[in-house]
Write a structure and sequence with these properties.
The complex is a heterodimer of chains A (288) and B (136). With 288 residues, chain A is of the alpha+beta class. Chain A is built from three helices and 15 strands. Chain A has helices at 42-60, 133-143, 204-220, and strands at 7-12, 16-22, 30-32, 38-40, 65-67, 71-77, 86-96, 100-109, 112-126, 169-174, 178-183, 225-236, 246-255, 259-268, 271-284. In chain A, the strands form two sheets. In chain A, strands 1, 2, 5, 6, 7, 8, 9, 10, 11, 12, 13, 14 and 15 form a 13-stranded antiparallel sheet that branches. Chain A starts with 6 loop residues before the first strand and ends with a strand. By secondary structure, chain B is mostly helical. Chain B has helices at residues 3-18, 39-53, 61-67, 72-75, 83-92, 116-135; strands at residues 76-77, 80-81. In chain B, helix 1 crosses helix 2, helix 1 (3-18) crosses helix 6 and helix 3 (61-67) packs across helix 5. The chains are: A alpha+beta (288), B mainly alpha (136). Chains A and B meet through strand 9 and strand 12 of A and helix 2 of B.
């Protein structure tokens, strides 16, 4: 399932929402971190914050529109979330018009922030193109005020094969400088059933996670150990549908002993799909 | 308040939104033709201008204002500008070089005419209207 809000605790339509995501061992997007500990992918925490904001917007617009990924001014990763953790999701709508929503959000565990989104902007598109509005309305009723029974609505679990976050083929790789890779969705990926039922497309969150990993490989090829600390100015300008070969280029633009900044650009058939910047901190320096 | 005053900031924002160096942005350049702006970029640009200048830019305002005072059938026919519509648009987008307007151009292509100066004019107008509303 590609739903990541288990329970909505507070919902001020079009203004603010507070929700919960519980992380379980069966979650499709729990993967080992650098130390082998199972953690929820950071970009899925961002996805959960975006989905919570979407609930608030869709309720305010009486399920006539839905927000889709557009621009994320800044993603700041400040912690990891392990199995058994309960993530408090807090999304605030800064402004909403007929065509777009602007919001910021923070996810925390036991009072400590693990991920923030700043200046996120989502175009609002006709709901009918993506979902059955009645199904969306029913799902909101289930997770809103679900109280003690919320456990039965746990999200993110699935029996399908785990989605591989690597690209199909690396077309070029210049250690610590630049890489280009390609990936094509087959159409059988489990998340496409929910994202979206009437228009299956690659979620920005999974694209960004794949790019962060490709950038990490590029940086670590020199012997360093780096961790992604966030992303900036991420902009999605087109949907990526199954069968469309997505070509991603990522290059190192700044590097110091402590951190690195990479820029990425993804295209389908030569048309821009997604651009942005990825940031990393160096845990262990290069040995060459 | 005039467009010269705010142009440096508008240029900085446009360069940031479109991932160009500030020096590459020409005041009369076409955002679509010269800087590859797409619809998401216009949305991004409008939000950033609103945030920076503390204004609200009504969506679709450029086309709406260009149509002001002209009946719909006099402005366009089958999605294309009439001669009268074209003249009205030229007058409204006076900052856009004359040779970029084409006879019978599609209404949907009006955004291809927008320049950094177009957005400077919008910002100034909205700031002045905001000041006017505050003093009333």
């Amino acid at each position: 399932m590609f739903h990541f809000v288990d329970q909505i605790l507070e919902l001020e339509s079009g203004r603010h929402a507070l929700g919960i995501k519980r992380v379980t061992a069966g979650d499709t997007f729990v993967r080992p971190n650098a130390d082998g500990e199972p953690v929820l992918l950071s970009c899925i925490i961002g996805e959960a914050l975006g989905q919570l904001g979407a609930w608030s917007v869709m309720a305010a617009k009486d399920f006539s529109v839905r927000p889709v990924a557009g621009v994320v001014g800044e993603v700041v990763i400040t912690g990891e979330v392990g199995v058994g953790d309960r993530i408090l999701l807090d999304t605030t709508i800064d402004s909403m018009t007929d065509d777009a929503v602007c919001y910021h959000a923070v996810a925390s565990v036991d009072g400590a922030a693990v991920l923030r989104l700043e200046n996120a902007l989502g175009p609002l598109l006709p709901m009918e193109q993506f979902n059955d509005p009645n199904e969306v309305r029913e799902r909101l009723a289930k997770i809103h005020d679900a109280g003690d029974s919320a456990g039965e609505y746990q999200t993110g679990e699935g029996t399908a094969a785990q989605f591989d976050l690597s690209f199909d083929e690396v077309l070029s790789f210049e250690s610590c400088k630049e890489a280009t890779a390609v990936r094509t969705l087959s159409g059988s990926e489990a998340f496409l059933r929910d994202h979206f039922p009437r228009k299956p497309v690659l979620p920005l969150s999974l694209l960004l996670e794949s790019l962060l990993r490709l950038g990490q490989k590029l940086l670590e090829d020199g012997g360093a150990r780096c961790v992604p600390t966030g992303a900036r100015k991420v902009k999605m300008s087109r949907f990526v549908e199954p069968g469309s070969p997505l070509v991603a280029n990522i290059r190192v633009t700044e590097r110091s002993p402590e951190k690195a900044l990479l820029k990425f650009r993804c295209e389908v058939d030569g048309e821009r799909v997604c651009v942005g910047q990825a940031e990393y901190s160096t845990v262990i320096g290069e040995n060459r | 308040m005039n467009t010269d005053t705010i142009y440096p900031k508008v240029r900085e924002i446009i360069a940031d939104v479109l991932a160009f160096d500030e020096e590459e942005i020409q005041r009369d350049g076409s955002l679509v033709e010269d800087y590859s702006a797409e619809s998401i970029d216009f949305l991004d640009l409008i939000y950033q201008l609103e945030r920076e200048f503390k204004i609200k830019i009504p969506r679709g305002m450029i086309e709406q204002e260009a149509r002001r005072g002209v009946a719909n059938e006099d402005f366009e026919e089958h999605g294309r500008l009439t001669d009268k519509g074209l003249e009205h648009l030229k007058e409204y987008l006076s900052e856009v070089p004359e040779d970029r307007f084409t006879s019978g151009m599609q209404v949907s292509l009006i955004p291809t005419l927008f320049t950094p100066e177009t957005f400077c004019k919008i910002v100034v107008r909205e700031m002045e209207q905001g000041e006017q509303a505050a003093s009333d």
